[in-house]
UniProtKB/TrEMBL annotation:
It comes from Nocardia jinanensis. It holds the Pfam family Lactamase_B. Keywords: Endonuclease, Hydrolase, Nuclease. SUPFAM superfamilies: Metallo-hydrolase/oxidoreductase. It comes from the Bacteria. This is Metallo-beta-lactamase domain-containing protein.
Length: 400
């Protein structure tokens, strides 16, 4: 959940969130619009848990909140969106939201003292550059480097993410004068962003590298922009997710192969979903997207599909607080919901992918009671679970 929040900055961010909180409180436990009431769901919904002990390959949910918000009013805090795939001792991150480092520690992924030890972290995969997916990225470098645990001298952390957008998005509603931020490069990609973060924190980094023997940051972390397939026909403002005939090959080592596809998170471009294939099984991460043919194609037969979800009823309640005409309201609703997958849509997406498990994450909003998400299993016949921070799920067979 990112684009909707960014899109309403000019309206009334405070008003939207206040309305959202009211909506969540007023309708807690009620049926979700368009979905069957929770009471009609026959199968039990599994919430939280840790059944990964003994597995070589694990999925660890570090943060499960969508949107650049410190959600309040929830019975439990959700950190910003971030997940880890762990194979043996090796760790791979998908997105790096607010609070990632603390959750990494709480999940027991720091392998040794000192804390901030990321020596087992091999790679980071950023689905897109919305802040709720990258707010934990600067601390990864700034807290990881001084302890000496960011990568190793012979194996720097590899970071993969979108390249430059290449054009500014359109203005919604049209016609408003909007000066760009950073007009010299208003659409930095992953490589640009990484370099700019290092520039911004150069005083700190030079102090630590020169005075307290922190290692050379450039030898411990290397960023890459994911290249789009030649001839894919993508365009930042008109065709953000053309149908791809085959997945984009992003990364491979002795433990995992990571592929990607373009997903539809307009106006964000590029936005990726990632699939991990291991000897034990496969995990696909939707990233932020509305329903898009590329995603089930990438996720086909996955053991786990980690998918985002948004509650349109919450969006409606938020819009009800805005002084909008019916036409304006319809336009805003489409704009806000059109970048994400609703409670009603996510089950059929997982079904069409043939995923063995649908695991919800990146909740929009992040402060709903769990019952509000039960309707998301409608249209899906596999194993449905509600993701929670620090939840761990084993992949493949448990070793004896
Ligand atoms: Zn998001
Ligand atoms: Zn987003």
């Amino acid at each position: 959940m990112c684009e909707p929040f960014g899109a309403v900055d000019w309206m009334s961010r405070r008003g939207l969130f206040k309305g959202a909180a009211v909506a969540a409180g007023a309708t807690a436990g009620a049926a979700v619009t368009g979905a069957a009431p929770a009471a009609a769901v026959a199968r039990p919904v599994i919430r939280g848990g840790n059944d990964a002990e003994g597995y070589r390959t694990r999925l660890v949910l570090l943060g499960t909140a969508g949107g650049p918000t410190w959600w309040t009013g929830s019975d439990r805090h959700r950190a910003g969106i971030s997940s880890a795939v762990v194979v043996g001792d090796a760790v791979y991150l998908v997105d790096c939201g607010e609070g990632m480092g603390r959750r990494y520690e709480q999940a027991g992924l720091f392998s040794q003292s000192p804390a901030s030890d990321f020596t087992e972290l091999r790679a980071v995969f950023l689905t897109h550059l919305h802040s709720d997916h990258i707010a934990g990225y600067p601390p990864l470098m700034l807290y990881g480097l001084p302890g000496g645990g960011l990568g190793t001298p012979d194996r720097p952390v590899q970071v993969f993410g979108p390249g430059r957008r290449g054009a500014l998005p359109g203005v919604f509603p049209p016609g408003r004068p909007v000066p760009p931020v950073s007009p010299g490069n208003p659409w930095p990609g992953t490589v640009d962003m990484t370099d700019l973060i290092l520039q911004a924190f150069a005083t700190d980094l030079n102090d630590r590298i020169r005075d307290t023997a922190a290692p050379d940051i450039y030898a411990r972390l290397v960023a890459h922009d994911i290249a789009l397939p030649p001839g894919a026909g993508a365009d930042p403002n008109t065709i953000s997710a053309p149908r791809l005939d085959r997945p984009i090959e992003v990364y491979e080592d002795d433990l995992v192969k990571v592929t990607a596809t373009l997903v539809d998170h307009r106006p964000v471009f590029p936005a990726f979903a990632f699939r991990f294939d291991t000897d034990d099984g496969s995990i696909t991460f939707s990233g932020d997207t509305t329903v898009c043919d590329n995603l089930p194609a990438l996720a086909e037969g996955s053991d786990i599909l980690v998918h985002e979800v948004v509650d349109p009823q919450w969006v409606d309640a938020s819009l009800d607080r805005m002084p909008l005409t019916p036409d304006e309201r319809a336009a805003y609703r489409q704009h806000l919901i059109g970048a994400h997958t609703t409670i009603e849509q996510v089950g059929p997406v997982a079904e069409s992918a043939g995923a063995k498990m649908l695991l919800l994450s990146h909740y929009g909003p992040g402060d709903h009671p769990p019952e509000r998400w039960h309707g998301a299993q409608q249209g899906y016949s596999g194993n449905f679970r509600l993701g929670e921070d620090l939840m761990q799920i084993g992949v493949g067979t448990r070793p004896r």
